[in-house]
Amino acid sequence: MRVAVLTAPGEVRVEEAPLPAPGAGQVRVRLEGCGVCASNLTPWAGPEWMQFPTEGGALGHEGWGIVDAVGPDVAEVKPGDRVAALSYNSYAEYDLAAANAVVRLPPELDATPFPGEPLGCAMNIFRRSGIATGQTVAIIGIGFLGALLTRLASQAGARVIAISRRRSSLDLARTFGAAETIAMEDHNDIIEKVRELTQGRFCERVIEAVGKQWPLDLAAELTAERGRLVVAGYHQDGPRQINMWLWNWRGIDVINAHERDPSAYVAGIADAVEAVVSGRIDPSLLYTHYYPLERLGEALDATRDRPEGFVKALVTP
User: CA angle, corner 169, sides to 163 and 170, nearest 5?
Assistant: First the structure.
């Protein structure tokens, strides 16, 4: 099979590798595609802790495809089942996954791209946010996650204020149900605009979906007394500082919405399947850029540089 190997910072090549055989409790998935996650960008840049070359297919964890072989003691799925997989070497033609870490995709999703892990992540973040009818919710950073959370929050009856840097992102937020949009330019100006929109109360829920220091600072400023600040951004480039005085004074509840239990990820993927089939969410508009496996480096660069109109890249074998 063909696999992508990161050979150095910012460098990738496609190599041949043996087809893996599933062991006990495993399935092999013939991949149709894999989403590109922003969490790949720090390893792609080559920090000191990163080791090159990588294992074949490494960093790819948003794969979907057809089960083509199963190992001993597997009853949950069978060859021919189309699934979303929680696996970790999916920048390749095939990957192995635990049988209890794949979710069947129903016929309604045939021929539809389904990067299950980020879709499940959006469902889990929404669940942990505790958003309810009548609340005002600020979402900082309208990319793939931010757009889906905008749709979920607005459908729950909340008023969504979307805050993002790019004009196309703000347009996307309105398409996904945002009541108000604010350009992410001036820190104090954003605070004053949200103060005016909420008659000085600020927001019962604030979701930070960028993964940088400034958006995290801004998120705290926009959270109401006894509100909930939900950290959905992936903070992997170093320690953060927080304004504990503000967090204490306002009595803010802070939720780190990243799951680490694989079963929670799988439950989120199953919820996402139901949400897409029912029409509750439609992520198709968010898959804006497609690349073959040989152009994985371009996909990673686009995810980093975010050209106008970019939301999410998918890589196909």
Answer: 55
